Amino acid sequence: MRALCWVAAGEVGVREVPDPELRNERDVIVRVRRSATCGGDLPLLAGPHPLLRAGDVLGAEFLGEVVEVGPEVRRHRTGDRVVVGAGVACGGCWYCRQGLHSCCDNAHADLPSADPDWVRSDAGCFGRPRAAGGFAGGHAEYVRVPYADVSAFRVPESVDDDRAVFAADAAPTGWLAAELGAVRPGDVVAIWGAGAVGQLTARAAVLRGAARVLVVDRHEERLRMAERHAAAEPLDYRRTDVAAELRDRSGGRGPDVCVVAVGTPPARSLVDRFAGPHADRPDALREAVHACRKGGVVVVLGGTDGFVDAFPLGAVTERRLTLRGAGRPDLRDVPMLLDRMARDELRTEHLATHRLPLAQGPEGYALFRDRADGCVRAVFTP
């Protein structure tokens, strides 16, 4: 079958790879209908990666049709249209029973190879290197889905593919951010980053009753999209004193909840981690900490460096802030989000700004990486 694979440092290409096969009784095989680019892919393409191998299949977010079912699968049958959660979880360990699927103890294919600096113990993920599970991703014609009763979800007939594919990761991540921030009716919420996750965090905050939601970014087309589709107030940090605006729009206190949804490519050496080309990226986190009201909550979402220099810990303690983080969402919210999509409360198809055949995967990733031509997400069809 054809798949979009890691080829070499900073390069992806469409290659022929072996068809997936059932490996255990709880697997299904899915024929992919849609797969979407993800911000978590970009660090893998930024340069040499010690855990990636040529031929590794990328793609964390995908949707498709079940074509083969393991004998112990109970919830799915051949022909079902399903969206698959980006994270892999067993459903039976202590963490999964608490609804913390992203911390699953049993769905990590190669935990010993995890980066010791991160002390990673989270579950596996599709389309990631072996330190994050080693499961072949969804930028392919077919995918093996382990623990399918836990991680695959039947899509309502009224929800089309371009909407439903975002229930794999971006929409659950946005909802989790609002949940971790304990967003309540009347809250003021500020979000740094107007990509897909930032916009869906804004929409989740609105659905939970936030009085004002502000999104900080510099890309005008993304800010307009957040305003139109998520009822958010846009703030272009190139033209605005963000801290002053946030105080002014929150009664002088600062937002109740601040969410950092900008991501950061991982540094490739200790020097890079503290002083390299990405060292300025944690500015959004520092700004969020200083902007948040006393006693408020700061939420940091995925893709962030293992090390951040000059972190304002004093501001966290003196202002009694709660700091929460999540690298990947859990699976428990996916059915609820699909129901909201079916009721038209949650619309996500506008985030698929570029629809391309899988054969044009490298071009799609170049658009996504460079945010060229207004690209928010590129969605591929095999």
Number of helices: 12
Spans of at least 5 consecutive residues whose pLDDT stays below 50 are: 265-281
Q: What would the average pLDDT be, to the nearest integer?
A: 88
Q: Name the CATH architecture of the largest domain.
A: Alpha-Beta Complex
The radius of gyration is 20 Å
Helix content class: 10-25%
Structural class: alpha/beta
- The global form is globular
Q: In angstroms, what separates the terminal alpha carbons?
A: 10 Å
For CATH, the homologous superfamily of the largest domain is named as Medium-chain alcohol dehydrogenases, catalytic domain
Order of helices and strands: EEEEEHEHEHHEHEHEHEHHEHEHEHE
Class of the largest domain in CATH? Alpha Beta
Number of strands: 15
Strand content: 15-25%
CATH topology of the largest domain: Quinone Oxidoreductase, Chain A, domain 1
Instruction: Kindly give the count of domains.
Output: 2
Most strands sheet: 7 strands, mixed
Cofactor: Zn(2+)
Protein name: Threonine dehydrogenase-like Zn-dependent dehydrogenase
Pfam families: ADH_N, ADH_zinc_N
Domain Alcohol dehydrogenase-like C-terminal: 196-267
Summarize the structure.
It is built from 12 helices and 15 strands. With 382 residues, it is an alpha/beta fold. It folds into 2 domains: 220 residues, Quinone Oxidoreductase, Chain A, domain 1; 154 residues, 3-Layer(aba) Sandwich (Rossmann fold).
